[in-house]
Design brief:
InterPro entries: 6-PGluconate_DH-like_C_sf, NAD(P)-bd_dom_sf, P5C_Rdtase_cat_N, P5CR-like_CS, P5CR_dimer, Pyrroline-COOH_reductase. With 264 residues, this protein is α/β, with parallel strands linked by helices. It has 2 domains: 156 residues, NAD(P)-binding Rossmann-like Domain (Rossmann fold, 3-Layer(aba) Sandwich), CATH 3.40.50.720; 92 residues, ProC C-terminal domain-like (ProC C-terminal domain-like fold), CATH 1.10.3730.10. Strands 3-2-1-4-5-6-7-8 form an 8-stranded mixed sheet, with helices on both faces. Helix 7 crosses helix 12 and helix 8 crosses helix 9. The chain starts with a strand and ends with a helix. Bound molecules: 1,4-dihydronicotinamide adenine dinucleotide and (2S)-3,4-dihydro-2H-pyrrole-2-carboxylic acid. (2S)-3,4-dihydro-2H-pyrrole-2-carboxylic acid binds next to helix 7.
Amino acid sequence: MIAILGAGKMGEALLSGVLRAGRRPAELMATVRREERGALLRERYGVQIVTNVEAARTASTLVLAVKPQDMGALLDEIAPHVPSGRLVISMAAGITTSFVQDRLPADLPVVRVMSNTPVLVDEAMSVISAGSHAGEEHLKLAEELLSPVGKVLRIPESLQDAATALSGSGPAYFYYLVEAMVDAGILLGMPRAAALEMVIQSAVGAAVMLRDSGEHPVLLREAVTSPGGTTIAAIRELEKHGVRAAVLEAIEAARDRGRELAGG
Ligand SMILES: NC(=O)C1=CN([C@@H]2O[C@H](COP(=O)(O)OP(=O)(O)OC[C@H]3O[C@@H](n4cnc5c(N)ncnc54)[C@H](O)[C@@H]3O)[C@@H](O)[C@H]2O)C=CC1
Ligand SMILES: O=C(O)[C@@H]1CCC=N1
């Protein structure tokens, strides 16, 4: 039995992915804060909605999907009820495995995961790290849970905040760029719907080439950038405005914010 504690956006996305991957609703339970949310999840997926304590007592794998700020309270609530031998998977940004371990009974294995919203379309990037009581079998269980909804990579926990900044938040940066490009289309007099279609399809085409061609992004960009042409005129402006430096600083700021989150 797998329990998802705090089935909000990420928890629901994982729940739906795990069901798409073929697990039966009877193998899954979820916890929520609001009753209407529970009714909706029960109706949508046929899973059991239970209390945190019931989930802690029953499930062999506990997936903690609350906001980092709510993690301390959730752990305090379930700590007296988690039997030994259970696997705890934390999906929260910034929360370390030792933060979780310190609040739960001794020796419980904890795996830290940073996934992203493309879980919803089975294209997630999930990075996992083992806490000090978790071993190969626990990482394998986490991989089993997450690989049907996308790619899974093992990394040292010291890089988890960087991964949060890169791939956890990553989709937001691409959406932001799409928004900005659509605005540029509007500036140039393009109807909004047409601009959106052009930008989205360009993004999809670029993403598929990045994934499937095996070419380095620099080579792919160079292939678009004709001598004396249009693309280089745009790139000159991006360089002039320090876009590359802005990206470096933005992602570093996201990493630093992740480091602060466990402290509330
Ligand atoms: N949204 C994103 O793109 C990503 C989020 N994350 C992480 O996933 C976690 C969840 O994020 P979201 O799903 O975006 O947030 P969310 O706010 O949609 O979901 C959290 C849910 O937990 C519920 N909750 C809070 N305390 C509870 C408790 N004591 N018992 C039961 N339910 C409780 C809330 O009512 C809410 O529905 C966060 O820790 C975040 O850092 C990780 C990767 C990406
Ligand atoms: O913004 C956040 O804090 C979460 C973690 C990674 C993506 N969203």
